[in-house]
Design a protein that fits this description.
FAD/NAD(P)-binding domain; alpha/beta
């Protein structure tokens, strides 16, 4: 076994958060080693040529960006471009074939007319816009706190009160978001459009008392204070690629195909690389892996094995989605002839996601079945950013579709049934898609050089195996509020920044950190800030 020199920090996992932490620490003059078990950095924030011989770079696991702070882009001098989508969403009404709700950010009158077209009652459009205006009052004051030391619940609530957002605080934080949606809105389709933001990646019902759906809802609306979800130009790999460049240029040592096998007290990290066993030591270990994976890596130490790194049962929550990537010859024709495919697919395309359908799907999945119909959301990255396609594919009119199927909890998937479930889930997604199309989606699939249709499906188990997300949970576990309770300990920088474990020298720096989740770099930023603040304290300088 070989041994390397000591570092100031070792980062375990080269996803986008780990790269952000590395860049911040290296820019501050720290010696940083980053270890990534895959052949390339980026984790789930990558682009890939998923189909044999086809020059299309799909954002394979993560699709859109909302939570990446401009502060991080500026601090690290990142060349990242995010494209705004004109259309917010398109939602066919399953009870009224050929009718759909189109929310057009560029045309308020057209959106209001669309509400009327699906039979929304008088005042529903005004209630919908008023509800989101209230939400923005709250998210506007919470967003700046995401890259600052954690506020307490009382401090966060006081911020809301000073902004006149007391009602939104109550609606989004204190009681089930489903109660508020049902109180404010009446139409089944419109209620469903709102509710989806509370359920993406989260297996929950609208009225659950643990409020996990509320936390998910808040994170989907808090980005930038506005909740806009943008397309990363060049694909998601362009985001992680820029973070990697910043880290390398700042002096980070990045090793790929380097699998960490153990983390021991005193900052001792063992890993395999180039066919040999290695050990490195550091003052700090930053874990850009899920908390349960961190526990596993520490399990060789008996004391650590007895006390999980976070002591947070939320991190054991299962993932609840299936992801399907498709490459089409062109966009499909719609049953709704009043809307162009370019407009319908220009935002988030909701299928079978009415309020009642979402609840029925939850109950079916809780009972052990794949929901029928399966609620789905579709994003067409290439409409907003054609650069992910070769010139030939662009000229031919090809388009990518990425589908996110909801209410597919990991409990439905086992190692024994995974292949069968993958087939069943892909069929369920295609059936759901075809229910709103004027032609079968299967006929529009391009084929790869190997003759296979350009479609790939990822179950929760596939996601766990590919990028290490336990139980396929895209947030590395259940999300937490972006504040702590008033009696929570905030004695150390790690606690104040929401990255603490039970070992003072091991920090969470990924999606499992408080305020982690999605492509944001917030977990990485906050872990780096905790390390730097600790260094100032140890050297006797005030923060």
């Amino acid at each position: 076994m070989s041994s390397t020199n000591a570092f100031d920090a070792i980062i375990v996992g080269g996803g986008h958060n780990g790269l952000a932490a590395a860049a911040y620490l290296s820019k501050a003059g720290r010696q940083v080693l980053l270890l990534e078990k895959l052949e390339h950095p980026g984790g789930a924030a990558v682009s890939a040529r998923a189909f044999d011989g086809v020059d299309a770079r799909l954002s394979r696991y993560s699709y859109l960006v909302s939570l990446l702070p401009q502060q991080v882009i500026d601090d690290l001098d990142l060349d990242i471009r995010l494209a705004r989508r004109r259309y917010s969403s398109y939602t066919p009404d399953p009870r009224n074939a050929g009718k759909a709700l189109l929310i057009d950010n560029g045309d308020t009158a057209a959106t209001a007319a669309s509400f009327a077209a699906v039979g929304a009652p008088d005042g529903e459009f005004e209630a919908f816009t008023g509800f989101y205006a209230g939400c923005r009052q709250l998210t506007g004051v919470l967003w700046p706190t995401m890259t600052s030391p954690l506020p307490t619940r009382s401090e966060a609530r006081n911020l809301a009160a000073r902004a006149g957002a007391e009602e939104s605080w109550d609606a989004m934080i204190e009681r089930p978001i489903g109660d508020t949606i049902a109180q404010e809105l009446q139409h089944d389709v419109i209620r469903g459009v709102v509710l989806t933001d509370a359920l993406i990646g989260t297996f929950a019902r609208a009225g659950d008392q643990d409020l996990q759906q509320n936390i998910c809802f808040l994170y989907h609306l808090v980005g930038g204070g506005t909740g806009d979800w943008d397309v990363p130009v060049g694909g998601m790999g362009a985001v992680s690629g820029e973070l990697e460049r910043a880290a390398r240029e700042a002096g980070t040592t990045i090793l790929t195909s380097a699998e960490v096998t153990a983390i021991r007290p005193g900052g001792v990290v063992s890993y395999r690389h180039d066919g040999a066993e290695h050990t490195a030591t550091a003052s700090w270990v930053l874990a850009n892996v899920a908390p349960v994976v961190l526990d596993r890596l520490r399990s060789s130490d008996a004391a650590s094995a007895a006390t999980p790194a976070t002591r947070n049962p939320n991190h054991l929550r299962e993932g609840a989605q299936v992801k399907v990537n498709l490459l089409l010859k062109r966009l499909p024709r719609l049953l709704d002839q009043g809307v162009s495919p370019e407009a319908a697919f220009g935002g988030t395309f909701h299928i079978n996601e009415t309020w009642s359908q979402l609840d029925a799907a939850y109950l079916a999945a809780a009972d052990g079945s794949i929901p029928d119909p399966l609620p789905c959301e579709i994003y067409c990255h290439s409409l907003t950013d054609p650069s992910i396609l070769s010139a030939e594919l662009q000229a031919a009119g090809a388009q990518t579709l990425t589908v996110f199927g909801l209410h597919v909890p990991d409990r439905l998937i086992t190692a024994e049934n995974n292949e069968q479930r993958r087939t069943e889930l892909q069929a369920a997604v295609l059936k759901s898609l075809n229910s709103v199309l004027a032609e079968p989606i299967e006929e529009l699939l391009l084929t790869g050089r190997d003759g296979r249709p350009c479609i790939e499906t990822k179950t929760t188990l596939d996601i766990e195996r590919a990028v290490g997300m336990p139980r396929g949970n895209i947030f590395h576990g259940g999300l937490d509020w972006p504040f702590v309770e008033d009696d929570a300990p905030l004695d150390t920088p790690a606690q104040r920044w929401g990255v603490a474990t039970d070992d003072a020298r091991i920090l969470l720096c990924g999606s499992g950190a408080r305020r982690g989740g999605a492509v944001s770099a917030i977990g990485g930023h906050n872990a780096a800030m905790a390390v730097l603040e600790s260094g100032r304290l140890e050297s006797g300088h005030a923060t």
